Each structure stands twice: as structure tokens, then as C-alpha cells.
Amino acid sequence: MDKFKQIVFLSSFVLPEKGAAPPPPVAAAPAGSSEGPVTAPTDAAPAKPNANEEANKPDEAQRPGTDPGKRAPISAGVLNGKAISLPKPDYPPDARAAGAEGVVVIQVTVDEQGNVSEARAISGPKQLQEVSVNAALQAKFSPTLLSGEPVRVTGVIVYNFGRPQS
Description:
CATH architecture of the domain at 74-161: 2-Layer Sandwich
Strand content: 25-35%
CATH superfamily of the domain at 74-161: TonB
Oligomer: single chain
CATH topology of the domain at 74-161: TolA/TonB C-terminal domain
CATH class of the domain at 74-161: Alpha Beta
Number of helices: 4
Structural class: alpha+beta
Order of helices and strands: HEEHEEHEEHEEEE
Radius of gyration: 24 Å
Distance between the termini: 34 Å
């Protein structure tokens, strides 16, 4: 996806304000009616959840993997072309001698400052994964902004290991 399409795509998202009221509920039209959905009157008092529903609903602090007030990372696909700095992994001599070659894909999380905070290999020759993860952890990106706010991003970095051309 080129940069313009990506900007247009990301700018199409509208994030709800914290504490904003939910939209009014929509009820189905009675059977045999040709009318569309019926919206509940706006002057009606909002329905209160019963005690069991409230007790079973996890709040943001209880959800695994989320911090209160923090947004989940945005998925950004392949990040190679978006890096400010993308160190190449060293080709381990033992892996080269063993003929290990191919594509290593590293799943990364980039923090709000553009630093790689997490990296793990998701595919590729085992002998090449550790050096690829170490290289990915050294990569640097421009901070990604959503509505003017820096956000975390997840994506992949792809490394190609092959025999040198003669």
C-alpha cells in the first residue's frame, strides 16, 4: 500500500472519546411491517445493566495485555520500507557452512517513539532466527501518528539470506 493510500486509510478511522455515550439502541421493525429499523427515543433513560452483567464484564485494567488508558497496537504489515535504520543481521559462519538460506520473518512491536520493543521469529531457518531477532531489535522507525497522537505498531520485518552472487 503506498503512503497516500495508507494515510487515507488510517485517517478514515474515528476513535470514540472516552466516556462518550453509546449510540441509541436500534430495534427491529414488527413482523409484517414495511418500515425499517426503529430507533429508541433519545429522551428515554439509558438501560442499566444488571449486577450479574456488570460483575462479569472485565474492565480495561483486567483485560490481559492492556494497560488502562493505552490503545492496542495498530497492525502495519511489512515494515522494512518504513524503517529509518534497519541493520542487517550477520550471516553466521556455521549457518553459511551448513547451507542455511531463505527468508526469516520477524514479528515486531514498535513503541510510540519508533523503537522496536518486542521481536520474535515467526518463520525461517532456525540457524538464522536469533541473529535476525537481534538485528530487528536494533531497528528504528519514525513514530506512527494516529489523530496526531503517537501509537504502537505491530508488523513484520523480512530478512533474506542467500548465497552470495559470483
